[in-house]
Amino acid sequence: MPEPSPTSSAVRLRTWQGVTVATLFTGYAGYYICRSNLSIATPLLLDEYGPALTRGHIGDIATFGVIFYAIGKTINGAAVEYLGGRRMFLGGLFASVVCTVLFCFADRIGPIRPAAAGFPFVALLPFFVVWSANRFMQSMGWGGLLQIVSRWFSAGRLATVMGVLTMSYLLGDAAARLFLGSIVSMGFGWRGVFAFAAGSLGAIGIVCALFLKRRPSDLGLPEPPPPPDNVYGTDTGDSRLSLVKLFAPLFGSLTFWLVCFMNVGLTLIRETFNLWNPTYLRDVVRLDPADAAMTSLIFPLVGAASAGLGGWLVDRLNGRYGLVVVPSLFGLVAVLVAFAVFPTDALEPTVRAPAILSLIGLVAFFVIAPYTFCSGVLALKIGGQRGSGLSAGLIDTAGYLGATLAGSGMGRVADAYGWSTVFGTLAAVAFATLFVGGFYAIRTHRRTDSGEAAK
Fold first, then answer.
1. How far, rounded to the nearest angstrom, does the alpha carbon of residue 436 sit from its chain's CA centroid?
2. Residue closest to 425 by CA, chosen among 310, 337, 305, 334
3. Taking the CA atoms of the chain, what radius of gyration do you get in angstroms?
4. CATH of domain 13-449
């Protein structure tokens, strides 16, 4: 049997690279149907169970979910280096479907009513358990995706590919809010929101299982070398390393730690807006739950444009990420301060909605590009083929541990002091993140200018 020609092999490789990107994009966008559903269902849950159920209680459920998501990022980030990206990506997807179905029945233990301590713990415990399990399982997805990408694409194409794939969860979030918002507008309650989310992700998962391949060699195709400046050198991930040898190169990299600290502030801000946008729009703009759900998609839509533009700018700045990160953080601080001091409640209804939506859009524009860099292309460049999943997992763990305040913390601040105080708190977080981002930019630009690899 004749060997395939180099031209034929190159064509097959490009074709399967396109299939891989499309499959990963669709699959990870689908993950967000079973993640954005709690945000969409929150006004419905508050309407059905209030005043026994408060925004603070919903925030507690979300916070526990974020904690388990952060824990899962580290555990599953390490596991992906031993079990493989495809297995982890698909396993997390189908496990999330199961958890989402279970959430529909989480209130069957008994009615939710005020407890003596003001917290209906027994009735809410199933919500905590199921939502936390869902977020833990979902933490398998991104690390699996990154390992697959590291095996399929050369270093020169990683920024472009990750620019596309980071848009998957932003557009997936927007599509999920539009889709699930339409479910609410059709008269379905919060259980319907979760049931439709589970069915949709299950269908997407079946398609992904058919087309997703672990690496080019599974199809007899050539594989690219690792990124030249990663902390593991030329290790392609074919050999087994001990956990110490897997973790040590990352922990010894100052660039890795700077990216982790930046991700703490950026994830807290992003998660706060992701969770509370529908509720804020209902409280302040006076939208009904369906309209609030669909209107909240402005955040991920503008964020997707920000991610695409940020990647394009970095390519033209020769990989100097700090030249995008620092101006973005300056803008983020300014917009959050405006959000905190601007008297939106005093505006006429016809002006209030456009003003608030404009501010939300500006927050998304300034926060999402640097956020996507941290756990995306920077994690890949630091971890290479050997540790891309672990690198992304640890960076995301740092971010989501910080984001635990987005649920319980910000929900209680909103209950006690109002939304302006929430935005003022986020402005302070953005300022601290700007300080770290500035240090990162100075350090990495000096090393780039001197021709050294950033390690």
1. 21
2. 337
3. 22
4. 1.20.1250.20
What is the C-alpha to C-alpha distance for residues 183 and 177, in angstroms, rounded to an integer? 10
pLDDT at 237: 60
d(CA 231, CA 347): 53
DSSP helix/strand/coil, 203: helix
Q: How far is CA 154 from CA 218, 252, 371, 382, in A?
A: 17, 25, 23, 14
pLDDT, tens digit (0-9, with 9 covering 90-100), for 166-225: 888 878 887 888 888 888 888 888 888 888 999 999 999 999 999 999 888 888 888 777
For 246-281, what is the HEC assignment? HHHHHHCCHHHHHHHHHHHHHHHHHHHHHHHHHHHH
Rounded CA-CA distance 401/160 in Å is: 29
Report H helices in 84-154.
85-103, 121-138, 140-152
Rounded Cα distance, 454 and 103, in Å: 44
What is the residue whose two structure tokens read 């050294």? 452
170: alpha, beta or left? (left if phi > 0; alpha if psi -120 to 50): alpha
- Alpha-carbon gap, residue 303 to 369, rounded angstroms: 7
pLDDT band at 452 (very low <50, low <70, confident <90, very high): very low
The single-letter DSSP state of residue 282 is I
Contact 410, 422 (CB under 8 A): yes
365, 313 Cβ separation under 8 angstroms? no
pLDDT at residue 61, as a whole number: 81
CB atoms within 10 A of CB 67: 19
Cβ 165 vs Cβ 28: under 8 Å? yes
Tokens of 265: 């502030």
- Sequence-distant (6+) residues with CB within 8 A of 60 are 124, 128, 407, 408, 411
User: What pLDDT is attached to residue 185?
Assistant: 83
* Most confident among 2-16, 50-64, 144-158, 426-440 (mean pLDDT): 426-440
Spatial separation of the C-alpha atoms in residues 277 and 329, rounded to whole Å? 21
pTM of the predicted protein model: 0.75
